[in-house]
Design a protein that fits this description.
By secondary structure, the chain is an alpha/beta fold. The chain has two domains: 134 residues, Rossmann fold (3-Layer(aba) Sandwich); 153 residues, Reverse transcriptase/Diguanylate cyclase domain (Alpha-Beta Plaits), CATH 3.30.70.270. The chain has eleven helices and ten strands. The strands form two sheets. The chain has a five-stranded parallel β-sheet, with helices on both faces. A five-stranded mixed β-sheet has the order 7-8-6-9-10, sandwiched between helices. Helix 11 links the parallel strand 9 and strand 10. The protein is elongated and about 75 Å long. The N and C termini lie far apart (63 Å). The structure holds guanosine-5'-triphosphate (GTP). One of its GO terms (biological process) is phosphorelay signal transduction system. It catalyses: 2 GTP = 3',3'-c-di-GMP + 2 diphosphate. Its cofactor is Mg(2+). One of its GO terms (molecular function) is diguanylate cyclase activity. InterPro entries: CheY-like_superfamily (IPR011006), Diguanylate_Cyclase (IPR050469), GGDEF_dom (IPR000160), Nucleotide_cyclase (IPR029787), Rev_trsase/Diguanyl_cyclase (IPR043128), Sig_transdc_resp-reg_receiver (IPR001789).
């Protein structure tokens, strides 16, 4: 048991059961090692998961209203909850119910009455996988140099926000920014200083991107992109101006540039249903605005 405790990752575990006695048993077994949450119906469990996804779910199969199998199917259909592992806690040990659990998307099942040792080991095993895969996923979607999101994450976020804005007819804006005369910076101060400059610029821009749903990504080379959900043209322009100020405030010396310090050019585009029929159209408009900023003297924000 001591060995188990050393290896145990602490995670958020949601216990879903309509019977208080079952919840109490699981609580006693797991509460010292994990952060436990409880839902007493399928509907409550879905709502909880959509608002704050746990790392693992222990799900009773037979419940009044929505049963565990249906809860699991719905979780697997939803992008934000599909990766949460579900362990079914089953009352019957017949083959049909086992198969139904697999088909609904469960990763495992534990028979009732629950064996403490089995439950704790199963939870530990699946939590370890989940937390490790979260970490790998995070690393795969992060830009190694600056620590902000990478191009892949940006593409995913822009497409997701695009779909969301189509469903809700909501606002969506995009900013593209590109450091001015960066080739000359590298040539003058060296590649290492160039890398350091990129890191500082990313940090400065991040300070202007304040809402939890906003996403700053390194789009490639010395170009960054910002996705701003629920934000119109004026709001996006303000974010771009604040980011431009933050870069100027860094006062990184850049003698070959017209401004003697590192600056960037910005292109802003906001969703216009009459004009854009895909996320690509929005991206192209932001790109055109960026080129207009470059063409008309750099170190400025242009709105498309
Ligand atoms: N140090 C460093 N340089 C990079 C990195 N990625 C791209 N670059 C450099 O960024 C420079 C971009 O040059 P250009 O596309 O010609 O643009 P620019 O010199 O910034 O000119 P304008 O955009 O027109 O103002 C190239 O020299 C790239 O090698 C990186 O990760 N680190």
């Amino acid at each position: 048991m001591e060995q188990l405790e050393q290896r145990q990752p602490r995670g958020k575990v949601l216990v879903v059961d309509d019977q208080a006695i079952n919840i109490r048993v699981i609580h006693q077994l797991l509460n010292d090692e994990h952060q436990l949450f409880v839902a007493t119906s399928g509907e409550q469990a879905l709502e909880f998961c959509l608002n704050s996804p746990p790392d693992l779910i222990l799900l009773d199969v037979v419940m009044p209203g929505m049963d565990g199998l249906e809860v699991c199917r719905r979780l697997k259909q939803e992008e934000s909850t599909a990766r949460i592992p579900v362990i079914f806690v089953t009352g019957h040990d017949d083959k049909d119910e086992e198969e139904a659990c697999w088909l609904a998307g469960g990763v495992d099942f534990v028979p009732k009455p629950v064996s403490g040792m089995t439950l704790r080991h199963r939870v530990m095993t699946h939590l370890t996988f989940k937390l490790q895969s979260d970490l790998l996923r995070e690393m795969a979607l992060m830009d190694g140099l600056t620590g902000v999101a990478n191009r892949r994450r940006f593409d995913e976020a822009l497409n997701a926000e695009w779909r969301r804005s189509q469903r809700s007819k909501g606002l969506l804006s995009l900013i593209m920014l590109d450091i001015d005369h960066f080739k000359a910076f590298n040539d003058e101060y060296g590649h290492q200083a160039g890398d350091d400059c990129l890191k500082q610029v990313a940090k400065a821009v991040l300070s202007a991107v304040r809402r939890p749903g906003d996403l700053l990504a390194r789009y490639g080379g010395e170009e960054f992109a910002i996705v701003l959900p629920d934000t119109g043209k004026q709001g996006a322009k303000e974010v771009a101006e604040a980011a431009a100020d933050a870069i100027r405030e860094l006062q990184i010396r850049h003698q070959p540039s017209d401004h003697d310090q590192v600056t960037a050019s910005f292109g802003v585009a906001s969703l216009d249903l009459a004009r854009h029929s895909s996320a690509k159209d929005l991206l192209e408009q932001a790109d055109e605005a960026l080129y207009e900023a470059k063409d008309s003297g750099r170190n400025k924000v242009c709105v498309g």
